[in-house]
Amino acid sequence: MSDFVLLYQGGSMPESEEAQKQVMEAWGAWFTGLGSAVKDPGNPMAAVKSIAADGAVSDAGDASISGYTVLTADSIDHALALAKGCPVLQGGASITVYEAFDVM
Predict the structure, then answer these.
(1) Which residues pair with 7 in a beta bridge?
(2) CA angle 24-40-33, nearest 5°?
(3) Which of 8, 28, 41, 94 could form a disulfide with 67 if both were Cys (CB 3.0 to 4.6 A apart)?
(4) Residue 24 binned pLDDT confidence (cut-offs 50, 70, 90)
(5) What is the value of pTM for the model shown?
């Protein structure tokens, strides 16, 4: 078993309260269905800053990343299969899946 970071890029939240409620319910159902595969449900992201190798801080960065989730799965193919059910896709976002590994 390995951990996989799902990075969400783009997408949008519906404007009406009722549609937002439906989206949040879809997220809850997705997380419930994943069960113990959810290591960290994650959060949306907003502000972005970058630190260069020389320590300089700038406003540069990938502002298209809108959130993340960490899952545990048998393989990257398994993680991809789990990610395909993510409600963020219904809002027009895409998902990039990264395998994380322990080095310490």
Answers:
(1) 68, 96
(2) 55
(3) 8
(4) very high
(5) 0.87
The one-letter code for the residue type at 2 is S
> Position of tokens 């976002």?
93
Rounded-to-integer distance, Cα 87 and Cα 89, Å: 5
- Summarize pLDDT for 36-65 with one digit per residue, the tens: 999 999 999 888 889 999 999 998 777 789
Contacts of 92 (CB under 8 A, 6+ apart): 10, 11, 12
pLDDT (0 to 100) of residue 48: 87
Tokens of 60: 């540069």
